[in-house]
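Sat 14:20. Reprocessing the chain from the morning session after the first attempt stalled halfway. Input below, unchanged.
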Amino acid sequence: MFLKSLALRGFKTFAESTELEFGAAARITAIVGPNGCGKSNLLDAVRWVLGEDNCRQLRVAALTDIIFAGTNRRKPLSLAEVGLLFDNSSDKLNLPFAEVGIRRRVFREGESEFFINKNLCRLKDIRDLLLDTGLGEGTYSIITQGQVDAVLSSKGEERRAVFEEAAGINKYKTRKLNAEKKLIAAEQNILRINDLKIEVGEQLLTLEEQARRAREYLELQKESKAIEIGLTKRQISGLLERKAKIEAELATARQAAHEQLATEQKDEAELIGLKERLRKKELEIDELLVKLDEEKDRQRDRELNRRFLEGELEREERRARELAGQKAELLKKIEELQTKADEGNSPHLSVGNCSPAVGEAVRSLFAQMKEAVALFSGIFSFFSEEAVFPHAEQKLNEAIQLKIDLLNEELKRLETESERVGFGLQAHRSQLHVYAPQAAGASQPAARPETIAARRAERDRLRQEIDGLEEKKRREDRDERSSEGRVTELEIALAKIEGEMTGLSEKLFNEYNLTLPEIDALPHTVANAAKARAELDEKKGRLRALEPVNLLAVEEFEKSRDRLSYIEAQLADLDSARDSLRALVSELDARAEQHFLRTMEQLSLVFSETFARLFSGGEAVVNLSADRPPLEAEIEISVRPPGRRWLPLSQLSGGERSLCAIAILFSLMKIRPSPFCFLDEVDAALDEANISRFTDMLKDFASTTQILVITHNKRTMAAADSIYGVTMEEPGVSKIISMKLTGAAA
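Finished this time. Tokens:
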């Protein structure tokens, strides 16, 4: 079995996917590079994928810190992943595969994933797979400068931890620690249960007396209950008889009230009908009165219209006469003007075509015109009578003709107005005929006084009926109130009885948790009520004398007694468990001591041989101090380099001390071998001579163990079959370059 490859992605400074391959022929692989380039991150990656969860061992503050945190040029990644691929042709790993890959992944959110051959699994599954292979927790497959320092430490507990890890007794110590914790818990439980046992025992003494009083109290309560139930049944029987009697009376009263209510409702309906008839009758009378008033108004309007028409007719007749007189005068005037015109031989005057009427205004107009013509004639005659007169005569004739024309126009107007007055007279005479008192077809009045009187008499009769019915209804209301009062009185009496029964029911339910049907079904009876009440008072007096009583005392006493028995059984079990744990601790101590002593014995022999080889002679022993038990004794390491005396480690030079520590670690590897070993700068303090012996031993170990060594030493690099270089071309990002020395030599 050997490691075939190591793959990283996003782990610490390895931002990109990186893979280191280890061939079967390359037994020693050197990992080199300047300080700070990320070489030790490869060792941390191997430690982490093999199951390490201690952040201090991984050199981080929190597990998520192993994820690439980013640089000035790169963003942080969200996960870190590391995988190991093993050649399992030897079937050392308990899986039916020639190759076995384990992989671990962590996300920045804190979630982790584990895989075996790409199948999701648990961390425990990986740890179980690596058990007894030399690759599990606590093995020496990884040796760091810190372990070298622990071996050289002056603190006994640090040095001891290295050897206990090599002896494989940590599992015994863990089991012992767990057993001791359980033993401490058992001791504490025993003390607590002992105290509880005493407390419960004291409670039993108190509860026993309380339980006796409670039993007596419960017995008296039971007897009182039987008597009280019997009295209640007797009382309820009497109440039921009274209730039945009142219910019968109440039914009769309700029936009577119902009949009265029906009669009252009938009278109410009749009263409503009469009132409706009265309302309609009054409306009918009002309508007749309105019609009568309307008829009177119509007669009055007819009379007024008739008188108005007679006045208009008289006025128009008078106007007609006036127009006739004016026409006569106008005709006369025209005739006179025509005569004058004829006397003056005027060819322009013609009387035959004039109208027969003339007005006063026209006559006045012609008089004025005549005076004007005479005036103009005088003026003209003053200047020249012969020249002017013919002309004046002609003008006078024209004036007379003009006047006649005007009179004819006025006559036409008078004739038109006379015609209009004639039409008005005819129309008014026709209308006056309609309004004549005895006009043919005149209608009779719709409302007559005798009809209204008959309606009023009928209305008065309805009012009398309504008054009589209302009086009857008032009597019925009084009777109804009396019946309702009787019903209410009986209902109150019935409610009182039901209240008493409810009170008895609630009392028995609250005191004895019984209902009336349950009470009625019980066989308790009372023959003499007075004697039973006296006995009940006596028992209740005894009950009061016993109070206060803890009624739960009987149950608590039984529970406490059972609890005490249970506590005693638990105490016996705890005593047995304590003895078993003590025996287990002793057995684990014996096994651990046996394994530790056997390992120390083997280590002493192997360490002596390894020391002699690394130091080219000399001796070395590992002893336990004799003043303390082996598992607590300090580990003393004494060496005698060639040609020198026995010395403790503290008196050796720095290089000698480192070489001595390496000898011890190599000795531990011989005792507990593993498929591969990862060394982290353990050769840092060695000089050239010691490096030569160190590399020779590496080559010897390489025959059985695959070795990966982080180093800065050229001699160590020369001993390697292949070299991986770690660089940081980009700040903060590690990169791998490789070289196979066997191929280069060829």
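The chain has 15 helices and 15 strands.
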